[in-house]
Amino acid sequence: MINIFKTSKSVALSIDDFFDKIDLGILNFKKGINSYIKGNIEEFDLNLNTLNFLEKDADSIKRKIENEFYLHSLMPNYASDILNLLESVDDIIDKSKDVINQFDVEKPHLPKEIINDYLELVNLSVKSVENVIPAARIFFTSPDQVKDKIQKVLFYHRETDVLSNNIKRKIFQELDTLKLSEKIHLRYFALHIEQISDASKIVAQKLSSLVIKIKM
After folding, report:
1. Tens digit of pLDDT for each residue in 130-179?
2. CA separation, residue 131 to residues 85, 146, 201 (Å)
3. In which element (H, E) is residue 154 found?
């Protein structure tokens, strides 16, 4: 790993471990939100707790990587960009933790008319992450392959945006039995889920910039 930068093996392993935590985090996010929507609260609680632990682990590993970079002056030409990239990747699991905790605290009620829409919204938003993490991994070994993977991230980000807007439109224009406060509450949870794909898009953009930079 990280052949391009010829960095230390320990840092390479730490970065790989960091990405593993993000992968597991988004998996628990998806399973947790799906469990909540389907009414499986016991499974939701398990995924919630697991995600909270994974987020702490990811933060700890990220700090370790940062210390290694500064202590050993690794990759001086790219250090700030790479650490900034990892910070944006970490933001994905941070937002995932925040969203699942908001479900736990606010306990939104989803009418049956939009349950499938929310399940698909979670699926699309998570797919953007499931494509951006492999892109981030492969950047450290084969940056020329990053572009193709980033296209999928942007595709799923667009699809998430479209579906989120359709859900909001359905909530406000079709679900007449809901109070305005209930509609606003549901809209915010669509926005929260959408933020996961937004965070992935930011990572994709930074990856694109880094690929260009190392070729200069």
Report:
1. 999 999 999 988 888 898 889 999 999 999 999 999 999 999 999 999 99
2. 15, 10, 10
3. helix 146-173
What is the amino acid identity at position 214? I
What is d(CA 121, CA 115) in angstroms, rounded to the nearest whole number?
10
Tokens of 10: 């320990």
3-state secondary structure of 110: coil
The C-alpha atoms of residue 112 and residue 109 are separated, in whole angstroms, by 9
From the CB of residue 72, how many other CB atoms can be counted at a distance below 10 Å? 12
Q: Which residue carries 């905790």 as its tokens?
A: 101
Q: Give Dmax over CA atoms of the chain in angstroms.
A: 62
What does the alpha-carbon distance between residue 25 and residue 13 come to, in Å, rounded to a whole number?
Answer: 18
Task: Give CA separation, 214 vs 5, 87, 119, 144, in Å.
Answer: 10, 19, 39, 11
Q: Give the 3-state secondary structure of residue 4.
A: coil
Structure-derived torsion over alpha carbons of residues 200, 203, 204, 205, reported in degrees to the nearest 10: 120
CB-neighbour burial class of residue 180 (10 A; exposed 0-12, middle 13-18, buried 19+): exposed
| Spatial separation of the C-alpha atoms in residues 182 and 177, rounded to whole Å | 10
Burial of 131 (0-12, 13-18, 19+ CB in 10 A): buried
pTM: 0.92
For tokens 């500064």, name the residue: 70
